[in-house]
Amino acid sequence: MTTTTTASRPLAIAAKGLRKAYGDKTVLDGIDLAVPAGTIFSLLGPNGAGKTTAVKILSALVIAEAGGLHVGGHDLAGDPQAVRAAIGVTGQFSAVDGLITGEENMLLMADLHHLSRREGRRTAAELLERFDLTEAAKKPASTYSGGMKRRLDLAMTLVGNPRIIFLDEPTTGLDPRSRHTMWGIIRELVSGGVTVFLTTQYLAEADELADRIAVLSDGKIAAEGSADELKRLVPGGHVRLRFTDPTTYRTAAITLREATRDDESLALQIPGHGSQRELRALLDRLDSAGIEADELTVHTPDLDDVFFALTSGPGLPNQPEEAVR
Predict the structure, then answer these.
(1) Is 39 a member of any domain?
(2) I want to staple 157 with a disulfide (CB 3.0 to 4.6 A). Which of 7, 88, 124, 132 is the partner?
């Protein structure tokens, strides 16, 4: 199995034909994944689609029934211990022990990674400061807010200095401010060369963070690409022109015969993705006819539209091969 991309960037995760079933239910049906190092890859799917199972297989917690897998350059089947040493995992539910302090949680992780007492204390102090938890370090973790517990959980994951981190719904239950704080931390990690494999319930989170996104449906990868590539799979994008002068509106409607008219609001809707080239062509047509719109807005499908289209029915028609797997 290759562990380099066509752009010669090494793959942090390379999976081929992963399959897993529980009884009669096939959760993963031969999926392929390729995650370049130093990027954020997000796996989306409905509840029960197999996202957590995929994370457990990739992080050497569950054995796949079929398929090949390399993580951090190590063959999972041949050297699972090397894979475990290269990764960190933050699950849906916090691993923080609320009965002890934040600092004690960190030192416990340092012991598990066989760090010396001196090195463990230094690492714990650095990470607590990095995650803005120094003032709360001596307090029981049970007194922490949800956002603080999540930050402590991720700090504990980083004690072993992993280069690949699996974040399984890391911001579930957090308020918007805490979620944005966590996003900043994730970006900082990636800027330092860490690879992040992210599952999330929040489609805006994947849109905001991920370099590439895969949508899991019925055990298969229904589509994969950047957020913009996936959005272009969904019909419904359009440019809306609104006018205040009825005469100008009627002239524009004659000029733009492909537009859908809204005579009540004096608005025209023109199908399109709202690309720079499309907008320039549209404005050139209006200029050549001496027409000036009072308002122009671009409406594009979002990841919610993509998600529902790919997971609620037979799929999307005429899907470009390069964006769909």
Answers:
(1) yes
(2) 88
Domain of 273, CATH number, reads 3.30.70
- Is the domain of 283 the same as that of 151? no
Query: Residue 41: which of 190, 157, 239 has the closest Cα?
Result: 190
Q: Judge contact between 202 and 179, C-beta under 8 A.
A: yes
**pLDDT digit string, tens, across residues 220-259:** 999 999 998 888 888 778 899 999 999 999 999 999 999 9
**Residues for the chain: how many in total?**
325
Please write the tens of the pLDDT for every residue from 74-98: 998 889 899 988 999 887 666 789 9
Pair 292, 190 in one domain: no
Residue-by-residue DSSP string for 233-286: TSS--EEEEE-S-HHHHHHHHHH-TTSEEETTTTEEEEES---HHHHHHHHHHH
For the chain, the domain total comes to 2
Sheet bearing 25-36, strands edge to edge? 25-36, 11-22, 66-71, 74-75
Identity of residue 262: D
**Strands across the sheet containing 220-225:** 87-90, 164-168, 195-199, 40-44, 212-217, 220-225
Confidence of residue 323 (pLDDT cuts 50, 70, 90): very low
| Inside any domain, residue 84 | yes
C-alpha–C-alpha distance, residues 12 and 111, integer Å? 27
Neighbouring-strand partners of residue 290 = none
Residue 285 phi, psi dihedral angles, 5° rounding = -65, -40
Give residue 58's domain range: 11-96+144-231
